[in-house]
Design goal:
This protein has 469 residues and is mainly beta. The protein has a domain of 160 residues: Leucine-rich repeat, LRR (right-handed beta-alpha superhelix). The protein is 7% helix and 20% strand. It has 3 helices and 29 strands. Strands 1-2-4-6-8-10-12-14-16-18-20 form an 11-stranded parallel sheet, with no helix packed on it. The longest helix has 19 residues. The chain starts with a strand and ends with a helix.
Length: 469
């Protein structure tokens, strides 16, 4: 028997559940049930219950801590988006999907969780969990496909995988305090599509050895201690399916590796086959930000990414003229090159970008007239701020003015904060709308409004929920 009482405005657990011996599926999600989970509920139909959803309530604790669930056949449990405190509850070994994110759980992960021999998806993210990630958790890689531990307080090294067979598709351990190098055993995981190690204290060189993972689409290493040159994989296999990469801010040295742009064929997808791109639904977690900070000049190979819709190279040290080959990006909607050292005139070729909605070249060293045709008539002063050598609409300075000022240097952070009318604190790249595609590469700060960022993150969340069902 299945009982669905989700979103029914309940404020407590229905007591008639105590008499339901044939109950197999129970949904009490998104009600107003608050406080401690009653002890009698933990004994409801312990022999037959297969599915339990208590998410989206105001539950605070269980009668015991720690607690081991008694449901012997429970295959899926969702307790996310509550206010649960204490230790992570431990289900029986038969559990396949276990979601308990967005609570207030604390302490370390009990080694008992490593007994989940059938687990495929586990999400403990957005809690206050501490301690090290248990080494024994890596033994589950033979069944585990999705492991999300992000936004906790884990310390120590990321465990090496012990299993000879790895089923992992997604790993997200971002926003913790993890240290040490990346575990080289990840090269066993041929199914990996999503890797997020961002915002930790990892110290390592660029993991070119991950380039042999033929399914890897997302690689996020931002805000760590990665250092040195970004070198090629010895066997020449270099991330053939990569669609999102985030390496900033780390301590990489050398030039922007243009050879990678030539070999990232997944970013050159034809319009006739969009399903191979990341816009085709895959289970991505929202909230990550994507940017990339390096130095050097704009690689011409970017011009081959025909389906690019967002290009952000802001806040780097790019020099030289603004490259005309950007006009080849005919589907480009947002172009942000602010806070660099670009010089020369804005190429007239860029007026061919008829889909361009956002254009920002502020705080560079550009000179000469601003193009006055096509989309350029829609851009405001902030798009060109900090380039005293520019002239023409929408600036007040006319191009006939003989008193030319020297090109300006990028402004300080204080100048940006006081003069910019757009928000620069959101970094987003390569996002799929429910009705289409948004393809992008961000190597700096994405120029995108907070409202749009929230809407895109919500689309990701909806896609994740659909796939869980």
């Amino acid at each position: 028997m299945s009982l669905g009482l989700g979103s029914c405005n309940l404020n407590s657990f229905p007591e008639f559940l105590q008499d339901q011996d044939n109950l197999q599926e129970l949904d009490l999600s998104y009600n107003n049930i608050y406080g401690q989970v009653p002890e009698w509920f933990m004994n409801v139909n312990t022999e037959n219950l297969l599915y339990l959803n208590l998410s989206g309530n105001f539950l605070t604790s269980f009668a015991q801590d720690p607690i081991i669930f008694k449901w012997k056949r429970l295959g899926k449990a969702d307790l996310s988006f509550n206010q649960l405190q204490g230790s992570v509850p431990i289900p029986q070994p038969v559990i396949e999907s276990y979601f308990i994110s967005n609570n207030r759980l604390s302490r370390g992960i009990s080694p008992l969780i490593c007994n989940l021999s059938s687990i495929r998806m586990i999400d403990l993210s957005n809690n206050n969990l501490t301690g090290v990630i248990p080494q024994c958790l890596s033994n589950l890689s033979g069944t585990l496909e999705v492991m999300s531990l992000h936004s906790n307080n884990f310390i120590g090294k990321i465990p090496n995988l012990n299993a000879n067979f790895c089923m992992l598709v997604q790993i997200d351990v971002s926003y913790n305090k993890l240290q040490g190098p990346l575990p080289r055993s990840l090269h066993k995981c041929n199914n990996l599509e999503f890797l997020n190690f961002g915002n930790n204290q990892i110290t390592d060189v660029f993991p070119s050895w991950l380039g042999s993972l033929l399914s890897l689409k997302v690689l996020i290493l931002r805000c760590n201690g990665f250092h040195g040159l970004i070198e090629e994989q010895a066997d020449g296999i270099e991330f053939p399916m990569l669609q999102i990469i985030d390496l900033s801010p780390n301590i990489f040295s050398g030039s922007l590796p243009s050879r990678y742009f030539k070999r990232w064929i997944a970013m050159k997808v034809s319009e006739t086959n969009p399903s191979s791109y990341i816009g085709h639904p895959i289970a991505l977690y929202p909230g990550s930000t994507f940017d990339y900070s390096m130095s050097g000049s704009d690689p011409e190979s970017i011009g081959s990414l025909k389906q690019l819709k967002l290009l952000n190279l802001s806040n780097n040290m790019l020099s030289g003229p603004l490259p005309p080959f950007l006009a080849n990006l005919t589907n480009l909607e947002e172009l942000d090159l602010c806070q660099n050292q670009l010089s020369g005139e804005i190429p007239l070729e860029l007026t061919q970008l008829t889909s361009l909605e956002v254009f920002n070249v502020s705080y560079n060293r550009l000179t000469g007239p601003i193009p006055q045709s096509s989309q350029f008539a829609t851009f405001e002063n902030n798009s060109y701020k900090g380039n005293s050598g520019l002239c023409g609409n929408p600036l007040s300075r006319k191009c006939g003015d003989l008193k030319a000022s020297p090109p300006s240097s990028p402004a300080s952070e204080e100048d940006q904060d006081s003069g910019s009318a757009v928000e620069l604190d959101w970094k987003i790249v390569c996002m799929g709308y429910a009705s289409g595609l948004v393809i992008g590469v961000a190597l700096g700060n994405c120029l995108i409004t907070r409202r749009r960022a929230q809407r895109l993150a919500k689309n990701f969340g909806r896609r994740k929920r659909r796939q869980r069902r």
